[in-house]
Design a protein that fits this description.
- By secondary structure, this protein is mainly β.
- Helix content is 0%, strand content 55%.
- The strands form 2 sheets. The protein has a 6-stranded antiparallel β-sheet with strand order 3-4-8-7-6-5, with no helix packed on it. Strands 2-1-9 form a 3-stranded antiparallel β-sheet, with no helix packed on it.
- The protein is globular, with a radius of gyration of 14 Å.
- The protein starts with 12 loop residues before the first strand and ends with a strand.
- Residues 13-110 form the Yippee domain.
- InterPro entries: Yippee, Yippee/Mis18/Cereblon, Yippee_fam.
- One of its GO terms (molecular function) is metal ion binding.
- Pfam families: Yippee-Mis18.
- Keywords: Metal-binding, Zinc.
Length: 112
Amino acid sequence: MGIVYKKYLHGEKILGCNACKTHFATHDHIISRQFHGQYGKAYLFSNVINVYTGEAEDRSMRTGLHTVQDIHCAECATVVGWKYLVAYEQAEQYKEGRFILERTLLHYVSGA
């Protein structure tokens, strides 16, 4: 896969990988805290860094059918959430192109 170059965020509340502390996003970039994932609470973000996506697949979720990709930590490859590609229900289309990170898989990294 080659060398992985990680990006680092600055701020007081940085969310990172629970396993390796790689930075993903700042607390201020949370769009919504009203989501649930496989392990409980989850957060919706418009963008995250230091991740890569898996294969696209259709999943039936609480809010209907969606095409999603799992997102993996670029450093340790832990699956930390998913990216919405397509929402088939019109009311859910605001999620398209956005990311879910599972709270139990996150760690608050001290800011720089």
